[in-house]
Inverse folding.
């Protein structure tokens, strides 16, 4: 969200999928180059060219750690300059 410029859009959607709840967050931000996606959830990972935006590179690492502790998954889809979509999938307990 911090990479979405003023006037940009952030859309949150959810759905039920085979015993899982899925939440997707989509933005119209700067996007993430494809070559950086594989390391995106690594500890202390910062995007190239993001030095002017505050951060430690821990946010997505923490998200992934918490979601996986609940037997879920998180993934990112993006292309540079086209925004990003982050999808969290967590099992529903009965």
């Amino acid at each position: 969200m911090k990479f979405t410029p003023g006037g940009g859009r952030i859309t949150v959607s959810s759905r039920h999928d085979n015993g899982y709840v899925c939440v997707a967050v989509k933005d119209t931000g700067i996007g993430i180059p494809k070559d950086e996606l594989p390391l995106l959830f690594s500890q202390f990972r910062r995007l190239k060219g993001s030095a002017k935006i505050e951060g430690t590179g821990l946010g997505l690492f923490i998200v992934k750690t918490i979601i996986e502790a609940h037997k879920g998954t998180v993934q990112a889809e993006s292309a540079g300059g086209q925004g990003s979509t982050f999808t969290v999938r967590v099992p529903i307990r009965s």
Notes: The domain at 10-91 is CATH 3.30.565.10 (Heat Shock Protein 90). Residues 59-69 form the longest helix (11 residues). Residues 44 and 58 are 5 Å apart (CA to CA).
